[in-house]
């Protein structure tokens, strides 16, 4: 019976009166179940030996607890010695008497633990050595640290370690919708308690911790990062439509920049900048504007500038081209935080359109090309050229220095001349000399031997002089006097100066090589067709000088001609200064006919001697390849040159070019030479802007080919109708072509009749159509063109009349002011100031250029007024 008199079963023994008791009670096999330390809780009652009457020393008050590890679950016999003693167990309490009726029963509970790690299970045994004992219950158990969640990591139910002091390290796993912040770890102590939690997990984006569970953010809320504490309400102008949002989506028309924090409101790109104003200063423009009216809820507005070169008056972006990369933007072109930019290094006299775009952090997100902008169109003014950056000495003697230099980086127009200032280094600038030249080189003579001179050069355009270059020092040498002709140098310098003034007041006009040749009218020379010679070599040697190939130094390829490459190089003929030349060569494998045709151009050219006709220096026929050597024309062919410098010249300069061509053509017509292929592409331009007629190849081709009029070889657009139809090529048909060249020049290299096909051009001309005046073309010039395009060739002007007409226009630039453009009003396009047309006397003019020593020579020859100077012929 237990305390409550409920009958219970017990194992009992009470052999207290007999000595040497050894009674065993053994359990069944107990499966260890992974436990390493098991606990044995024994409940028992024990009689106090003293309470037993007549009991001697045989009575005991303890029993022994044993265990035996085994894999065998049904061991029938286990030797006593196989058991290992766990402990001798004594009772805490003992009852001393048994009262039937009112019995006091004391139940003892003792717990012992034992390490069981070697086998699958074990047996327990109780040894009685003479006590009076009743074993009420034996409970065997092991301890675990129970499954738990700590810091959002789950730790599984974990069996404690084998030793009382051992800790089992357990790695936790993150709960659903969470991610590891730091490896979650805990230790399971021997008594089943979790110890020392380390690390843990965080709810994933879109989820928040609700009592150890990660719950999705609800609609209208979001959580962007796992480290954020919880879900937040969507920022302004955004929403989330589903649970578990990690970001909120912007309302339509609002945007989020990648760099914006998720908590930031959605924003909009700015509206256009406002009140863009421009101030042009020569070739720079200051642009200023006000910030956009709407900044879109952001404070990171920036601006970028687009720079376009547009045709005058064009608002069509298709007719604009991006500016070159030389243009400078200060402080910058993009990413601007200020509302002011200085744009410099622009081209002079050019129409620019500047577009200011406003951006902010969401401009890109809101779609490409969606930036709001404001634009302004400006026209730059004229500007002086940039400084000459480098001067080099190409030849040094005892008394002279030959210098050359490069064109300034930014000529800002056509360079009219260079000015070289120099002085002896010792003298500083107390006394200096100035020389002026058209070309990029000068020979400075009359210097002292072995003396250091300092040179500065500057360039001049219609806008005036640029800055002088920095100083360049060169010393004359001590060598003995060389036989260079000082006279020639002086003459050259004089011609240089004369050219300078001529250009200032008149167009670049042909110049006599020496002033002493000013007078006299030459007898009429007639051109001889080289094909009338039976032996073409005879013709060539009659009209062209044979050059020794060793005196030619080829430098680079500059173009492609009909027969092969065209190169530039230098020619040094003994006793003469080295000059730059163009070299045309006949490619290998040519036929006899090709040789003949190739050399015929030289035979023709060699007969001419005029400043507006390309000059033949000579030919190489004695070795291969055959070469034709001509003067070098730095600016190449006129059509390409004009296209490159579109809009950069004054009307006077354009007329100056036309005058040169007319003068060359007059010379050819005087010699009864019909060019047949007069076109801007066949005019070459040198560094002084002098235009020269070239390409004397076509006449032959057309004569050889009776079908030429109907083949693509005929330059339909440039050719007079009677020449197309009847092959009636005359000076009058050259005049027609000259009219087309005028149109090409004034339109800066536009293709005549644009992209009309040849048949349509022929038809249109036949029906009386004529090319209209190019943009800004003075009315008088277009009238002159129309005159050249008279159907009746006898009604066309002669080259002599054309030349006179152009000279008149140059002398009265006011006549060039009226242009056809601008409805109802007159537009002034001439920028030549009146001061360029001084009412000077020949004497004043000569004085101003330091050539008054020629006064008498000119007067004696009848040149008493400036007008009369214009009638100077080459001879
Ligand atoms: P052509 O065969 O004469 O038409 O020459 C072909 C190209 O070479 C021309 O369009 C020019 O660009 C170049 N060229 C020809 N002659 C000269 C020259 N004397 N000076 C400079 N460039 C030239």
Explain what the structure shows.
17% of the residues lie in helices and 29% in strands. With 875 residues, it is an alpha+beta fold. Strands 2, 3, 5, 6 and 8 form a five-stranded antiparallel beta sheet that branches. Strands 34, 35, 37, 38 and 39 form a five-stranded antiparallel beta sheet that branches. β32 and β33 form a beta hairpin. The longest helix is centred in the middle third of the chain and has 20 residues. It is rod-shaped. The N and C termini lie far apart (159 Å). About 7% of the residues have low confidence. Bound molecules: adenosine monophosphate (AMP). It is an enzyme of class 2 (transferase). InterPro entries: Eph_TM, Ephrin_rcpt_lig-bd_dom, Ephrin_rcpt_TKs, FN3_dom, FN3_sf, Galactose-bd-like_sf, Growth_fac_rcpt_cys_sf, Ig-like_fold. It is found in: Cell membrane; Early endosome.
């Amino acid at each position: 019976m237990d305390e409550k008199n409920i009958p219970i079963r017990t194992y009992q023994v009470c052999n207290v009166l007999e000595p040497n008791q050894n009674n065993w009670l053994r359990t069944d096999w107990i499966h260890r179940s992974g436990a390493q330390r098991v606990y044995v809780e024994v409940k028992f009652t024990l009689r106090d030996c003293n309470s037993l009457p007549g009991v001697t020393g045989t009575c005991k008050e303890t029993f022994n607890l044993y265990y035996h590890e085994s894999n065998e679950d049904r061991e029938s016999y286990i030797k006593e010695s196989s058991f290992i003693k766990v402990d001798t167990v004594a009772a805490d309490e003992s009852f001393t008497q048994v009262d039937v009726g009112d019995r006091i029963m004391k139940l003892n509970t003792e717990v012992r633990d034992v390490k069981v790690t070697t086998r699958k299970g074990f047996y327990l045994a109780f040894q009685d050595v003479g006590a009076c004992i009743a074993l009420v219950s034996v409970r065997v158990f092991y301890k675990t640290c129970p499954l738990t969640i700590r810091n959002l990591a789950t730790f599984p139910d974990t069996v404690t370690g084998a030793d009382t002091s051992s800790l089992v390290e357990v790695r936790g796993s993150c709960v659903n919708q969470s991610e590891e912040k730091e490896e979650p770890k805990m230790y399971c102590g021997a008594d089943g308690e979790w110890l020392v939690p380390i690390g843990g997990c965080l709810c994933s984006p879109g989820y928040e911790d609700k009592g150890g569970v990660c719950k999705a953010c609800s609609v209208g809320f979001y959580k962007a990062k796992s480290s954020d504490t919880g879900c937040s309400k969507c920022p302004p102008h955004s929403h989330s439509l589903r649970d578990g949002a990690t970001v909120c989506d912007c309302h339509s028309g609002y945007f989020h920049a990648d760099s914006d924090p998720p908590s930031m409101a959605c924003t909009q790109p700015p509206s256009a900048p406002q009140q863009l104003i421009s101030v042009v200063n020569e070739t720079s423009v200051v642009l200023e504007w006000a910030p956009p009216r709407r900044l879109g809820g952001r404070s990171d507005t920036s601006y970028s500038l687009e720079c376009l070169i547009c045709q005058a008056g064009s608002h069509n972006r298709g007719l604009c081209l991006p500016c070159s990369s030389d243009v400078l933007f200060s402080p910058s072109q993009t990413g601007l935080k200020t509302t002011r930019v200085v744009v410099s290094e622009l081209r002079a006299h050019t129409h620019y359109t500047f577009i200011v775009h406003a951006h902010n952090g969401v401009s890109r997100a809101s779609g490409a090309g969606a930036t709001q902008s404001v634009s302004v169109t400006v026209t730059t003014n004229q500007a002086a050229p940039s400084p000459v950056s480098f001067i080099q000495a190409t030849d040094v003697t005892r008394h002279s220095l030959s210098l050359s230099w490069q064109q300034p980086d930014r000529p800002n127009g056509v360079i009219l001349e260079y000015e070289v200032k120099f002085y002896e280094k010792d003298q500083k600038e107390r006394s200096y000399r100035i020389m002026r030249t058209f070309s990029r080189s000068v020979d400075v003579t009359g210097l002292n031997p072995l003396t250091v001179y300092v040179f500065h050069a500057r360039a001049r355009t219609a806008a005036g002089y640029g800055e002088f270059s920095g100083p360049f020092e060169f010393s004359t040498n001590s060598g003995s006097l060389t036989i260079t002709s000082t006279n020639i140098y002086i003459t050259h310098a004089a011609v240089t100066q004369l050219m300078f003034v001529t250009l200032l007041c008149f167009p670049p006009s042909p110049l006599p090589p020496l002033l002493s040749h000013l007078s006299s009218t030459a007898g009429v020379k007639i051109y001889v067709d080289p094909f009338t010679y039976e032996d073409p070599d005879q013709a060539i040697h009659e009209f062209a000088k044979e050059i020794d190939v060793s005196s030619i130094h080829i430098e680079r390829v500059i173009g492609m001609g009909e027969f092969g490459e065209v190169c530039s190089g230098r020619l040094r003929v003994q006793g003469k200064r080295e000059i730059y030349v163009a070299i045309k060569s006949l490619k290998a494998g040519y036929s006899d006919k090709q040789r003949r045709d190739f050399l015929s151009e030289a035979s023709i050219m060699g007969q001419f001697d005029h400043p507006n006709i390309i000059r033949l220096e000579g030919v190489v026929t004695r070795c291969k390849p055959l070469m034709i050597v001509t003067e070098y024309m730095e600016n190449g062919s006129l059509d390409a040159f004009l296209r490159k410098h579109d809009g950069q010249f004054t009307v006077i300069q354009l007329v100056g070019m036309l005058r040169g061509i007319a003068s060359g053509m007059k010379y050819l017509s005087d010699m009864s030479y019909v060019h047949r292929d007069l076109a801007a592409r066949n005019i070459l331009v040198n560094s002084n802007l002098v235009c020269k007629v070239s390409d004397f190849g076509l006449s032959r081709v057309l004569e050889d080919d009776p079908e030429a009029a109907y083949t693509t070889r005929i330059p339909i657009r440039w050719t007079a109708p009677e020449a197309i139809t009847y092959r009636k090529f005359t000076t009058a048909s050259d005049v027609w072509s000259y009219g087309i060249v005028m149109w090409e020049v004034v339109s800066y290299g536009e293709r005549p009749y644009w992209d009309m096909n040849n048949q349509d051009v022929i038809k249109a001309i036949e029906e009386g159509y004529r090319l209209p005046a190019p943009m800004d073309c003075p009315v008088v010039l277009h009238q002159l063109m129309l005159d050249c395009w008279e159907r009746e060739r006898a009604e066309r002007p002669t080259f002599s009349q054309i030349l006179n007409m152009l000279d008149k226009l140059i002398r009265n630039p006011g006549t060039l002011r009226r242009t056809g453009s601008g409805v109802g009003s007159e537009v002034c396009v001439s920028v030549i100031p009146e001061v360029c047309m001084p009412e000077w006397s020949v004497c004043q003019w000569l004085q101003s250029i330091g050539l008054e020593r020629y006064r008498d020579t000119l007067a004696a020859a009848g040149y008493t007024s400036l007008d009369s100077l214009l009638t100077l012929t080459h001879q």
